Amino acid sequence: MTAPPPPAHWHCYRWTGERRTYDDESARRPPHLVVQDIPPQEWKQIAAASPAFMASDVPPLEVPHWLLRPARMIKATFEAPDKASAWYRDQISDLSPSFLADHDKDTTRQAEQLAAADDRLSWGGDVVSGWYLRGTGFASVQVVACSSNRIRPTIPCPLH
What we know:
By secondary structure, the protein is of the alpha+beta class. It contains 6 helices and 4 strands, in the order βαααβαααββ. The chain has a 4-stranded antiparallel sheet.
């Protein structure tokens, strides 16, 4: 069996907010549970049927569902995996001083996370991370393969 072709690009997303908001799953899922691939037009109809899901900038429960949301939520787009990885690295560097847990601030642990991200992006995967922040905050950083995503290859790119 041959490996699927690499994605055309990766879209990058970052969300920082209150843990209570993140824990409320209602705006984090589209209105229909989809367990199999469906045509791109059906994805668009599902997304359109949920204004709350489409308006929310809170990370969706299923990573590829970012691609259903409006393109304005994309923080960056990269065609090369190393560029997407550099963006991810910059986000961790920026957020790290606010991490609640000492183990999340540990540079050895962060280096392992970054190496795993590099590997995942090199074969066309997604990268997903989240951290509790000081106070009551939570941060999520996600790099999502697009055109196509390996988990949901029929979700259309938000830029097309």
